[in-house]
Design goal:
The protein is mainly alpha-helical. The chain has eleven helices and no strands. Helix 4 packs antiparallel against helix 5. The radius of gyration is 19 Å and the shape is elongated.
Amino acid sequence: MRTTQRKAQEVAERDQALVRLALEMISKEGFHNLTLGKLAQEAGYSKGTVYNHFTCREDLLIELSAESARRQLRYFQAIADLPWDGVRSLYGMVFAYLHHAAVAPVLFECSITARTDAVCRMASEGRTERRDLVESQMEQLVGFAVQRTVADGAYSNPDVPTAVAVDALRAFILGYGAMHLLSQRFLWADEEGLDARLMVMASMVHGLGWPRLEKEELLVVHRVVVDVVDGIAREYQAG
């Protein structure tokens, strides 16, 4: 391996090691207590080394949101590869997004905060562009599922374009995910509320123009998605 390639690999590996360490520190003390100085001290690097990776704390936050997106992309790709029709793939991606909030709450919360204008203004353009690229790949997978529903004649709302319907669905699941993070006492946060949560989701999807799956079908899709997400999440935990 050439010297330049080896150095680039070392930088990438150190970058990911710092992200993993930052996640651990945020889980223990919260993002508001994390500084690049503390991260450098915990990692055993100089402040200069850490600042070579992240120009500011907002830069680190963008990278954490990119890590969240990369994991979600893996979930979405695994679901897209399943022998499902477009409607079940769409439901599956919704469930994967929600379960991601449960298994990686710190990453999910960082991904929400990293969307604010204040963070985006401070972060480096390169970090933001790389995060946006991964998110665009996620959107493509969702788009493919939607296109399949249209091709199958499964979308039936002449008043709302599919792009608007997807945006409304995204807003709904993002709102639920945020509420879940804010309080574990939320009405549907526990396992006992699963049936009600699935039926509300089905009503939301159906109201936007897609077919409504019945409870037993929803439970099957949800069970498969949870297994997919948990399996991939375990790989990250082991790493």
